[in-house]
Structures are given as C-alpha cells and as structure tokens.
Amino acid sequence: MVNEGFLSQRKRLDTLFYLTAAFALLGPSFGIPVTSGFTLTFFRLAFFVLLAGFIFRFVNTKSLEATYMYPIRWYIAFLCFWIVYAVLTLTWVIDMGKGIRYVVFLTNMIALALSFPYFIRNESYYQKITKVLFGVYTAIILFAVFESVTLIHLPTSRAADENVSDGVSAAVTSVFTNQNDLATCITLALPFIAAAMIMLPLSRKAKTALYGVFILSGYVLFATGSRVNELIVLPLIAVALLILFWKSLDRSRFNLKSIRRNGFFLLLAVVLIQVMLATMLTPEGQRVVGDKLGSTSASLSDLHNAVSEELVGEEGSGIAGQSGESITVRVNLLKHGFDFLVKSHFMGVGAGNIERWMHPSSDEYVSGNVNKENIHNWWAEILVNFGVVTFALYLSLYVWLLWRLWKLISLKRSPHLSPYLRFGAVASLAAMTGYFFGGMAMSTAIHFTPMWISYGLALAVLVLGEHQNKQVEPKSISGSK
User: Fold this and answer.
1) Residue in 159, 320, 292 with CA at minimum distance from that of residue 228
2) HEC per residue, the chain
3) Any idea where the domains of the chain sit in the sequence?
4) What is the mean pLDDT of the chain?
5) Predicted TM-score (pTM) above 0.85
C-alpha cells in the first residue's frame, strides 16, 4: 500500500511537471493579474505546486532519488554555485530590489532547467515531454499566424501598447513580449521539427503535421523581421543539421532518391512560405519585414561604424544609423557594459544591476548614445552581471555540453543509442549551436523559458544517452568474448 501511495504521488508529480513545462513555454500570457506589476501566471502556480509536491515527497522518502543524474553533476554544481554567487553579489549591488528580483528569476529558471533531467527518467518520459512541448509550440505558432493576419495582439505583447501611425502595430509576437523573443523560440524549436521528420520512423500523418508546422514556423519567423535569427541563426542551424545528419545517420540514407525527395519538400516549403508572406501579411507587416531585411547591408555598415566609434562616444551624439537605432544602440550598450565590468574589478556589477548602471540617474551613465537600459545580449548579461569567473564557467560547460552531445550522435562512438535519443541529441546540439547568436537578439534571457527548457532537454538527453551507452557496452564486450 505504501509503495502504491508513493507511486501515485510520483505520477501526480509527473503530471504537474508536464503542466509546468507547458505553461512555462506559454509564458506570462496565461495568468491572473494580482497587481499592476504582478501577474500570478499559470506557470508560477504550477511550478509552486510542483515544488511543494517535491518537498512533500522528499520529507516522506528522505531521498532525492536523483542518483541517475550523476553524468551532469558538474552542471548541477555550477548552477548551484551560480545561485550562491548571485546572492553574494547582493552585498555590492546599487539596486537591491532589482538584485533580489533577478536572483529569484535565476533560481526559478535553474530549477526549471534541472527539472527536465530529474523528471525525464527514461526514454518514454522524454518522448512524452517532447510531444507536450510540440503541442504547445504548435498553438503558439497558430496564434502567431492569426495575429499576423488580424493584428490582434495579446495584452502581454509590447505591440499592444505601441503607438503607430495606423493605430495598430504589425509586429508579430504571439505569447511573447516582442518579436525577437518569438523568433528565437522558433529557431530553438525548428531543429527538433526538422530532425524528427528526417530521423524518426513516423507515420505519414505525423510527418504531414510536422511539415505543416515547419512551414508555418518559417512564415512566422520571417514575419517577425528578426534579422539575427533570419540571416545568421537560421543558416547556421541549417549547416549544423546537415553536418549532424551526415554524422548520425547511416550512409545508406544519403541516396539520390532520398536527397531528391527531401530537396523537393524543402524547396516546396520555401515557395509556400514566400506565397504566405506575400498574401497573408498585412501591407504594414510586409513593409516592416521588407524594410528590416532590405537594410541588411546598412546594418553591417552601422555595425562597422559603431564598433569603430564613428557613431559612439560623444555627448548628445545621435544613435540612429542608416538602418535605424538597433545596431548602434546595441553596440553602445555592450561598450558601456564592458566599461562597467572593468569598474567592478571583473567581479560583475551584481545580479540584475546592469539596468541600474545604464539608468540616467546612475553616476556611471553615459548619455547620448543609448536609449535602453538592458544590455540586449545574454552572454554579455552573464559577464557584466556576474563577472569573468562565472561567465567562463558557464561558457566552458556550455561548450562541453555540445561536445558530449556530439559524441552521443556519432554512430561510431554511440552505435547502440536508440533512434529517439539520437534524434534528441542532434536537435539539442543544433538548437544550442544556433543559440550562440540567438542569445544576442533578445533584450534578456533570464526569464526566457524556451532557452531554459532547451538547456534542460539537452541535459536530459545527455543523462539518458550516456546511461544507455553504459548499459550496452558490457553486453557487447561479453558477447564478443
């Protein structure tokens, strides 16, 4: 009876985990406004109940039941160190409120990421969570398509508050605050969709559904007008997937018939995306996308000028370049951020305090060439907030994770890995490779749940894959004798 009771508790926790993951991806769009500055989101509610259930189970069992997470022990150790160091930085921050808020976000997001390898205990759980996330992602994309046609925005979208000449913003954001966040979410998800269509033995109905979402994702991605994700991240992911497919699939899969078929469907997807952009986007939306993509060369010129300080550094100097404000402002934000890092003796300005140092009321503020406070780069956000040591550890473990996933996908190194885990390793590796640049598109990633979910999925597939390899190797050795 006791075992049955614990089993029932575990199943309820599993259900809560799936709900938490689903609501995390939906973000702040689903919740109950409590005050003008706080919304009790369904994610926060589900996460709190899940945490309470986890603590209750731990009190009853006196065990974390987490020994199978041993392969990622160094990642857990670093993430715990990161939280401790973030708390320590509160002793020198200049804005305690922002610092505490950031530490809470960081702790919650790290717990979210680690919940994936904890609750995904075998391949069956990994299949379930990827299906749940795909369902939620599909809903996000479908609403984005609807939004692009009707210009009806969710209250959490920045587009709902933008003042434009026509009265309604043409920005496509779906459940996110801005279009760059939506675009980054898409580039994190596309490798999973593409890899599933190529690598998994799916039914024709399942492949058709994936192909449809793939096309809609491409349409929404270009409708956002996110230059970083469209012109840098997407090509990088495409090249990465080609290399990873060649590394992870049997060479017999690369026959002329297969290449022709996949090439045809890829070309068809490109044509359909172009047709949708030409017929479904509003005139204002087409103008915005055309202006952004058409200003690529101007953006490169602005980047060169900003880096060479032709548009930077003078009091009252302009911030608008040939392509607008975005490029020069971002470069100036980075320059100020690195200056703040030096002034903090490379220990970081403290959790969440970049915005406070960038604020006009700060003694360190350099006016005239920035009109934002957030540094708009995830890598720089870690570096400037938490210093060189934390950033170096984060980046080293990130690269090490990519290397270990690379070893998992290899047919030579992991010949007995199951098709689904090999698919998961390929998709995670491609997504996280693209995020090297995708992380530079958003204003902040501290509460950008798709990134933390992607990190958690990568850790989960690493745990399962390495355990599966260890279970097979002894049998292979004994069999050979």
Assistant:
1) 292
2) CHHHHHHHHHHHHHHHHHHHHHHHHHHHHCEEEEECCEEEEHHHHHHHHHHHHHHHHHHHHCCCCCHHHHHHHHHHHHHHHHHHHHHHHCCCCCCHHHHHHHHHHHHHHHHHHHHHHHHCCCHHHHHHHHHHHHHHHHHHHHHHHHHHHHCCCCCCCHHHHCCCCCCCCCCCCCCCCCHHHHHHHHHHHHHHHHHHHHHCCCCHHHHHHHHHHHHHHHHHHHHHCCHHHHHHHHHHHHHHHHHHHHHHCCHHHCCHHHHHHHHHHHHHHHHHHHHHHHHCCCHHHHHHHHHHHHCHHHHHHHHHHHHCCCCCCCCCCCCCECCECHHHHHHHHHHHHHHHHHHCCCCCCCCCCHHHHHCCCCCCCCCCCCCCCCCCCHHHHHHHHHHHHHHHHHHHHHHHHHHHHHHHHCCCCCCCCCHHHHHHHHHHHHHHHHHHHHCCCCCCCCCCHHHHHHHHHHHHHHHHHHHHHHHHHHHHHHHHC
3) 66-289+376-470
4) 86
5) yes
pLDDT higher at 414 or 137: 137
Q: Is 31 helix (H, G, I), strand (E, B) or coil?
A: strand
Q: CA separation (Å) from 245 to 18, 76, 197, 377, 430? A: 29, 30, 12, 30, 10
**Bridge partner residues of 321 (DSSP):** 324
| Digit-coded pLDDT (tens) for 48-102 | 999 998 888 888 888 788 899 999 999 999 999 999 999 999 999 999 999 999 9
